[in-house]
Each structure stands twice: as C-alpha cells, then as structure tokens.
Amino acid sequence: MSWYGSRLVMYHGGKGGTIFAVGAFITIGGLALGSGFLNLRYFYEASSVGERMMEVINRVPAIDLDCMEGGEILASVSGDVEFKNLIFSYPSRPDNVILQEFSLKIPTGKTIALVGASSSGKG
Question: What distance in Å separates the CA atoms of residue 16 and residue 7, rounded to the nearest whole number?
C-alpha cells in the first residue's frame, strides 16, 4: 500500500493525506470484517435453533383442538389446584429428574408465581 501510494503521489498527483486516509479505511474495514467473521458461528447456531423452533410451531397436534365432541362445556369452574408427590423429568432426559415428590396446594382465588433463574425449567 505504501509503495503504491508513493507512486500515486510522485507520478499521478495523488495527495499524501488521501493515500493515508484510504489506507486507514482499508485497515479498519478489514479488522471490522474479520471480527464479523468470528460471529458467523453464532448466526449459524441461531439459524439451526430457529429451524427447530419453526418445526415445533408448525407441528400438527395429535389432539384436534377445534373438536368439541365428547367434552362438556362448564358454565364456571372453581376450586383449589393441588399437586401431590409429583415426579417430573423431560422425555428427552428421563434420567434427570427435575421435580422429586413435589407437592403444592393453590387455594381458590390465590395468585402465585413460579420464580427461578433463566433456563431453570419453569417453562
């Protein structure tokens, strides 16, 4: 770059400041482009996750949600919600038990919240 820039100044009337600025822009642009390539892996991973999410979103459920046959429509529902000795693990990791003998009673009209760290299985 320096040799070519000096030739432009000497024989073609180029200005030193312009040559320097172009060299600086090329260097900074190259660094930015290089750091952008480092992030390509994350874009690839995100597209893979997005593809899986779309499969889940577009799947056809085994239960027909629009079918009202065989069910009963209740005018109102009231009562406590209670879990007794619940054991839970995800189907993909049956050996990793998430809840072991979990019990919880929520009285009618009570509002509760499930609180925990991000990705801790509140889902």
Answer: 11
DSSP element (H, E) containing 89? strand 81-89
From CA 99, how far away is CA 122, in angstroms rounded? Answer: 11
End-to-end distance of the chain based on CA atoms, in angstroms? 57
Question: Using an 8 Å Cβ cutoff, are 87 and 101 in contact?
Answer: yes
Query: What domain count does the chain have?
Result: 2
Give the domain extent around 20.
2-58
- Sort 99 into a burial class: Cβ within 10 Å, 0-12 / 13-18 / 19+: middle
At 73 the three-state DSSP class reads coil
Q: Give the global pTM.
A: 0.37
Please write the tens of the pLDDT for every residue from 15-33: 777 777 788 888 899 998 8
Tens digit of pLDDT for each residue in 23-71?
888 889 999 888 888 888 888 889 888 998 999 899 888 888 787 787 7
